[in-house]
# Entry
Amino acid sequence: MKKIVSLILVLVLCVGTGMTFTACGDKTDFTVGICQLMEHDSLDQATKGFTDALTEALEKEGKTVTFDTQVPGDANLCATVVNTFVSKKVDLIMANATPALTAAAEATSAIPVLGTSVTDYKDTFKNNIPANVTGTSDAVPFAEQAQMMIDTLKLQAGDKVGVIYCSGESNSKVQYDAVKALFEEKGIEAKAYTFSDAATELQAITNSAASECRAIYVPSDNTVAQNDSTVGTVCGEKNVPVFTSYASTIGYASLAIDYYQLGVETGKMAAEILLGTKQVSDFEIKTLTPTTVYDEALCGKLNIAVPEN
# Structure
């Protein structure tokens, strides 16, 4: 009898407030805020994979989703974007890149936050990932990357590898520290060439790196990726090989993940959370298996032998 009375009260409340019964218990339309740090191919592909996968999954259940996609272009502006999402009470926030993720996590503890294109969640949150945060990582096996460069370039003890990255991107520092340790185990020096402003500093530090180093390693750094033609031009003029942690047109080789597929996996997570079949806490941070790619023409120009396998 009490259950019947309670149900009647809920129905009266819904009608009295102008809400439908569906809105009270079975939501059919969702709003997702997307904060993508900046525009470049990898992040663009991750966002596209996310929206494609989430849209498809919800449509199969007869539901719809509206995306509010914002690209602040600067890490300092991510907080403004995600705070707007919170004030709009979006159903979920997708944070594309580490600065977007940290801003979203600081802005809300109630709205689910899914990260993508983030290298190391534990490092980002000092081993204390918030309960409302999960997602996908673009981390790749650094040992395999370092060994690829050693093997294909025939690097030896005493050689120097330059690592170019933006000092404002913590995920890039994680990657630099990892490859530095791996190279130094072989007696190969790994030197950081960092910058804060790509427009005024990237060309100069690339010139220095290319003049001083046997090869250049570029981590999955968003700022470099957005401006990697500068790195490619300078190193190309000096015939210095570039290895990238992401698929690019400037590297003689890369060991990288598919960012569109990374976004797809994030979208699948979001669908299960919005549909209520899983909670954020049910998901571990997911990584993808990377693909090895060599640029045959560039390898030929640099006299680099592409492995037979």
